Amino acid sequence: MRTPGTPAPSNSSVTHTANVLVIGADALSMGQIRETLGTEAALSNTATPFDDAMMVARKNRPNVVIASFDTEHEEAIRIAQQIRAELPKTVLVAIARRTDPDRMRAAMRAGYSEFIVLPEDSELLRQAVHEAVFNDTPDDDAGQVITVWGAKGGVGSTFLSVNLAAELSPVQRVCVLDMDFSMGDVAAMLDLEPSNTMAEVFKNLSRLDERMLNGQMAIHTSRVHVLAQPKTLEHRDEPSSDAVMKLLTTVAKSYQYVVLDCGSRVDDAALTAATVADRLLLVTTPDVLSVKNAWRRLQLLERLGIERSRISLVLNRVDRKAPLLSVPDIEQNLGCRVEAQISEDRVAMKAVNDGKLVRDVDRRSQVARDIEAFTGLITNGEVLHDKKASNSIFASIFKLGG
Fold first, then answer.
1. What's the total number of domains in the chain?
2. What string of H, E and C letters represents the secondary structure of 187-213?
């Protein structure tokens, strides 16, 4: 998951006190930080101004830098870029008095590992600083986040999400999160009747940890874990960006691969999922409306500062004998390469209608072979057949690149 910044071993580990540099905070915020951290952190009496921040950081080499996003958020972004370049092991934490989805996403892109609203999320601040001292090794086991986003409704993002996850699951620990808070269909696609859903998780977000999360997951026969949307529409509430971030941060600690099915929504949840993704799969079909909407999404992602290298264009429902639009035409119009193609196939429709995986309907079908190639895209072509899992085409042994 793209939350750059790893804890740095330092002499403060011996004294169990974090070396913390606070930048740009006013007196009220400084008081809240002091009250939250107590004796766990060594703090100056006042916050350091942004203009002096790099000089102080170079001298003190802090475990944690806490920067205010209340007023000079552009300065906070600039400082983060400098600290990441010169002190890459320093943990960056953004603080603010209110939730602002745009600023939160900007902070994540700049390298801040947390965006904390004070005083509501004070415990999260304490935890971040605590881990900077006691976790002396980088978290290399943090899960890789794959966001699947449809150019428009009906292009097959959920179909690809669940079949991708199933191909990864025999060797890796994999989950699918249904991030479509209006009409999410992950559970239906896998013929699951989960007893717990996203609604319960967000109601108890303050208590969310890895143990609680595992108890909320439904488990498919493929060993894919699923956090689904509620069955009825009246129980579907759209969470804030910081709530989504807390969920994704917790999930990434528990799974090697986290697949986020965002449907075709353009909301805070989808944009947050796009921001933190290690790989974003933009799914379109070879027709004019879908390609047009794919172009619009690419423009939005560019404005959000999401690198094109993290985005993979996936073409679904391809009629290879008589395509509506050719691949060269699509690539020319979108300015990016089609990296995977999934065939139009009756097997796919049968799998959807029966609530089954494609491989369980016909593993020798063209669409099953296409999904195998598609999964190879995620694993950079490095795969391992799991001999113990007879119902699997293959499974990944390498993590997704950033």
1. 2
2. HHHCCCCCCCCHHHHHHCHHHCCHHHH
Q: Are residues 149 and 103 in the same domain?
A: no
- 371 alpha carbon, distance to own chain's centre: 22
Cα gap 394→386, rounded to integer Å:
6
Buried b (16+ CB within 10 A) or exposed e, 20-52: bbbbbbeeebbebbeebbeebbbbeeebbebee
- Residue 298 belongs to domain with CATH number: 3.40.50.300
Question: Taking the CA atoms of the chain, what radius of gyration do you get in angstroms?
Answer: 22
Residues 86 and 162 in one domain: no
Digit-coded pLDDT (tens) for 86-124:
998 899 999 999 988 889 988 988 889 889 999 988 888
Q: Structure pTM? A: 0.77
Question: Where is 144: in which H helix or E strand?
Answer: strand 144-150
Residues 250 and 380 in one domain: yes
Which residue from 177, 237, 172 is spatially nearest to 392, judged by alpha carbons? 172
